[in-house]
Write a structure and sequence with these properties.
It is built from 17 helices and 14 strands. The protein has 413 residues and is an alpha/beta fold. The longest helix is centred in the first third of the chain and has 19 residues, at 2-20.
């Protein structure tokens, strides 16, 4: 009876948390919300209304589940990286293989949901930003599947770094819009996509690529991504008979991390988000928002934010294009303040070393974004000496090969 009471107590706590964050206005504590120009208030209210109409609709859920199984290839497996674990002499490392999801990353989980929502709303066009290109490819895939137009905004710097993904987007029928102002990376791509949506919100929907942006996107993208955590928890217990001791994921905007963390928030499991330290601690040398940022507003929501002396979003850098964003999801900001998740950093060099080590020890080439989480897991495994670590391997490294070869070669040790 005591065990049953404990289970029921955990279920009640989890239900209460789901109801509490976000609230009706989209706030996770003091983070999130909607900070919008007047002309976008009505379009976003329309999105909120439509999402709440379909989020528990049996037909919508059935179609999404069908697509996940028969189109995306879910569930993705959990894999024991035994050789990598033995080489590092500590805790056993497991990988949630989101790199095996169709299009090569976790992004399709929410893009198919957003595409379905667009069809429900009668929209004809999907607009989005992308950094590493994985969100752009996933959204172009969803648009092709649902017969919708697609427009992807991407900074020139990232277009040059991620040429294979640019070609994939174009092959899938998307229009790629080069962004040439500012630092020409992810923040500027978001700015450009917002402007395009503002000009055509009656016919289009802005499909934000992470758990960022105005309400309801942090909620909606989390809900579509939590399938990762739900699968991973069930798979890990089936494989080992236990929960993992630690769950790690890289954090830029934070969609892959919130996806896997959602499956373990109510469990006695240590959760670690790994941010990009890039070249170092200086302004413009990293994108470690949780470590060096402070509360601010960007792109219509409140979060931890890297800022310059004038309070404007600071320049950011990472070798991983999908992580070089000065803000972070509001739920991550909330989880940091609550102490439930620990946020740490990983340098370009450590990311590089993990990229090569996973490739050579396990035959798995990770995305540079994912390699940040792998890198810290190796450090954590050596510290723990025993136990288990589950890493969300959020994407594969095909897109990064040109960049890696140019900057580090093939024969790096």
């Amino acid at each position: 009876m005591a065990e049953q009471a404990t289970v029921h107590g955990a279920e009640a706590e989890h239900a209460a948390r789901r109801q509490a964050v976000p609230d009706e206005a989209g706030f996770f504590g003091k983070y999130g919300g909607q900070y919008l120009p007047p002309q976008l208030e009505a379009p976003f209210a329309e999105i909120v209304k439509a999402y709440h109409e379909i989020e528990n609709d049996a037909a919508f859920i059935a179609e999404l589940r069908y697509l996940r199984k028969h189109f995306q290839g879910r569930p993705t497996p959990v894999y024991h990286a035994r050789t990598l674990s033995l080489a590092n002499g500590g805790a056993q490392i497991y990988l949630k293989r989101e790199d095996l999801n169709h299009t090569g990353a976790h992004k399709l989980n929410h893009c198919m949901g957003e595409g379905l929502l667009a069809k429900y709303m009668g929209k004809k066009k999907l607009i989005a930003e992308t950094g590493a290109g994985q969100h752009g490819v996933a959204l172009a895939t969803a648009a092709a599947h649902f017969g919708l137009e697609c427009e992807i905004h991407m900074g020139i710097v990232d277009i040059e770094k991620q040429a294979p993904n640019v070609s994939r987007m174009q092959l899938l029928g998307a229009t790629v819009v080069p962004v040439t102002h500012g630092l020409q990376t992810l923040k500027e791509a978001v700015d450009s996509a917002f402007e395009a949506y503002l000009a055509d919100f009656e016919n289009s929907i802005y499909c934000i690529g992470s758990v960022v942006g105005p309400h309801p996107f942090p909620l909606m993208v989390r809900d579509f991504q939590k399938v990762v955590g739900m699968e991973a928890r069930e798979q890990f217990v089936e494989m080992t008979g236990n929960l993992p001791d630690v769950v790690e994921a890289c954090v830029g905007g934070g969609s892959n991390a919130i996806g896997i963390f959602s499956g373990f928030l109510d469990d006695p499991v240590e959760l670690i988000g790994v941010e990009p330290l890039g070249r170092g601690e200086g302004v413009g040398d990293n994108a470690a928002t949780m470590t060096y940022g402070r509360e601010g507003v960007i792109h219509g929501f409140r979060c931890y934010l890297l800022q310059d002396e004038g309070g404007e979003p600071a320049p950011v850098y990472s070798c991983a294009s999908g992580l070089d964003y000065p803000g972070v999801g509001p739920e991550h900001s909330y989880l940091k303040d609550s102490g439930r998740v620990q946020y740490v950093t990983c340098s370009d060099e450590a990311c590089r070393d993990a990229f090569f080590e996973l490739s050579r020890k396990e035959g798995i080439i990770p995305a540079l974004e994912s390699a940040h989480a792998v890198a810290h897991a190796l450090v954590k495994a050596r510290e723990m000496k025993t136990g288990t670590i589950l890493v969300n391997l959020s994407g594969r490294g095909d897109k990064d090969m040109d960049y890696v070869i140019e900057h580090w070669g093939i024969g790096a040790d």
